[in-house]
Structures
1.
Amino acid sequence: MMRTTMDKDLALKVMDDDDLRREAIATAKVFWWDGRSIHETTPSGLDASLITDMAPVRRLGSYQGAPSKLVLHSTRVEGFTSAVLAESKLERHHLVELDRRAGVTAYRTQPLIVVWKFGDAGVICQIPDIAAAINGTVEIVSVRPRRLLTDYSHALLGGLLPDTFTEDNLRYRLEVDMSPIRVRNLNLMAFLRWKSPVTETDWWARVSESRPATIYGISVAARDDRRLEKQGLFRALLALAQAHFDADFEADIDVYTEVVWRK
């Protein structure tokens, strides 16, 4: 279905005016594609069970100014290995975080189109970067480097979209830049994440029973011999990558790093 896109200056006025923005939000529709058919619903009609059926609604890398660099990210959040395409390294880093997040059962990139109509002036359209199913809710994520946040994109990604996805079964967030140290830590986690599960090893029982509070304590419990320091550290990092406990990724991860065990 072809619709006239609203002039950006007018769209910005609509998004900046509380009454006009509410009027546009009342018209919001969501379109998604399962690879064969186009489906239409309202934001409140989105359900976590739909995420696994969603296919990218446009060819990745096709937006104006695209850096022509796609990233293939491997994941097993659905119980088997699959590949998800990301349009940037920043987007891929957020996919790595989703791999670690508790309750995530599925996610897709470029999953849907949101359309707002304002009288005969045309429509405002936006394609969020990620849709995820998390503990039975739908989380919509936009990823945009801060340097690319114009007045228009800020009003759209930081105003209109969060004001549209406000139902109890919906979450929305805008992600901007990520610190270099967090990126480094996430890259390490991504490298280790899908190795053999630590829960299937003979040393894991020692760690899970004692639940040490630091990487050092975990490495001591995990090693087979007190002299095997590197072995213990590797096993501690492996367990961290597999999300049995969490750490502050905004700081260097070393033997002094404190951890918080998941329930």
2.
Amino acid sequence: MFSIIQILPEKFIPNFLMNWLEKYLDKRINQLKEESIKMTWKNMYLQDAANEISKKQQS
């Protein structure tokens, strides 16, 4: 559906569809940002755990 809308000139896309797409894309972008933040925190936690294991193995 997005590929079809992308090739259409903007004047042929109804306003309600443009508004819906804007809301959908905003929501999806926010979801991806939240997921990225969660993955960053998880990565930091795993990095700390790996560092702790490495320190214990060295001592």
3.
Amino acid sequence: MAEKEKTDKPKVTFLLGAGCEVEYGIPSGADYKRDTIRAVNVKDFIKSLNDKEKNDILIPNNGTILTAHSTSVLYQTVKDLSDGDLQKIYNFDADQLTIIKKYLAYKNGEYDKQKDKDEIELIRSSFQEIYCNQFYLPIKDNESFEQSPYLNSFLKEGSFYSLIDSQFNYLRNPGENPDECRRVIKLYYATYLSLLKGLSKQQNFIPSGVTIQEKRKNLLTMLDTFENTILSNVKKTYYHKIKEFSSINPSFIVTTNQTRFIEKIFTTGDFAYVHGKMDLFEDIRTKRVDTLNNFSDEDFIFPFISVQSGVKPVICSRQIHEYEKATNALLDADEVIILGYGVNTDDEHITNILRERLLSKKNSITYMVYNDGSSDTDKISNEKQRIEKVMSIDITEKIKFKFTHKFDEVLSELSK
């Protein structure tokens, strides 16, 4: 009788993101992006896990993944902002605003490339000067972003995807594209270090050991220690509430997080890691994916995780299997609950699955909007408009929006 009662209940899939791990001290999406762009202390960390004497892969230097010519980053960041927002967020003066408007007009094809050649060159050089002086050089020189609101906003909310996406193609032939691959390697390790610092609460992290193999094994051991320590200290989180719910309701978890809290809390295996895991790495040459300690000294490896970008190039049969599990869970569930995850264009592989679910008339998606208990109804309205724009479909009556402080009530209603 009890088993029949369980199967009669709706199948629920939880789509979980970084917001579920804020209580563990893991950086949220914006902080994660900032750490990735700054790429502090990546060089020594990469050297600790790869034997330079046995490889011809270039070790990246410390410092930002940006270059002096990465003006596309500023262009993408400002193109959808109003004049008021440009002044409020980034402190542009009147002359700078004029240059930015002209640059946007140039990118929109409003100048004749032959007739306005000289003016275009002046616009481009002036725009690059704004980018370099106000953003690139302060970031490169590691100036204190905490003291600069506009610099902090740029690091946390800027659009870096064109810069990042343009680098991935070079992974096809790392030996022929050493400089470009070095930038990609830096990107992945900077992302990994952001997660690792959140777990360890250390700023300069180098695993102990004399040999490369010792350092790799010690990193896995310490990763275990960090995660287990956090789990022992933080007992009541969204994960624990979901576990309690799942003990009596058929459930599946799709996570975009790369920590291993999910598999340590939920031991049934009913979960899918769609963005990789922190114990997995990839050999840049053979593309083999395995746990960190299963590589030889000759293998040049980088973390097998997805970074914040418009494309997800690191793929293998293992990850395809994770996508398959996630796809089935998101499309077949009676209910989907999105928690701690923002539906965005940079995760189109997930957005497309959610859109397919809605268009197939399985309208049961509940989207939890972060709220501390206050009655800020505008947050739901704004989030609905944002997601509708991302999905390019009418989501009215297709997605139910609830505040996160009502999460227990949502679970209770599904348990009836």
4.
Amino acid sequence: MKTTRGALLVLAALTALSMITEPAAAQSSTPTAEEILANTHLLGNAANIILTATMDIRSPRGDKSRTLEIYISQNDEASKILAQVTSPPFLRNLKFLTHQFSDGSDDKWVKTSRGVRRLAEGNYGEALFDSDFTVEDLSRIDESRFDLEVVDTGETSGVRAIKAIPTYNGPDYTHKIFKIEVDTGMLSGVDFFRDEALVKRYTLLERQVIGGEPYPLLCTMEDFAKGTSTVLEIDKVSIEDSIPERLFNRGSL
């Protein structure tokens, strides 16, 4: 009888221990909001990418189109992006360049017919190429500039929603909700809110697979407050061994 009672006590202790440790183990394997965003990409996560894209801008004042070349060089230490208009020819002076580093520092410049201008943090909401995409939208997500929280918005399985409240001065939204495919890191949507009003939305409409990895094919940015929208179609994706560093030199703008 003593042996049976001792065995039952041991079994009960082991059962209680498993009930304590199993949830803890499951919890530790769940990625944090920061970890999810660190692996999130809008235009692709290869080390060196060259994109050709068509940007169709629609507004009550009329429609217009631009052809873009976008160069991306990225690793764990830095992300460098150059976007430039190649058509129509009279807009070929329009360029955007960003350098972002793992320590949180970054530099951003825009070039227009008036010359090159370095952007202050408060100007990251500036529209690019007269579209609904801003400087912040086409930069790599910097999770250090937000207070982050994983939230439940009823998204489909495999998509995580992250609420991001900016901690820097200047944005014209109070918070936004990133929608991310956890398995691929693809940014499938972003909802921008001003207080509780939805004022802007990014949506990934179609995707393509290059070298076994997903890339956007068609996406849109809608500004409900302005009544405008921009459709971005990725016409060509080239994965390169390297991209000349001179392209990302501020002096080459």
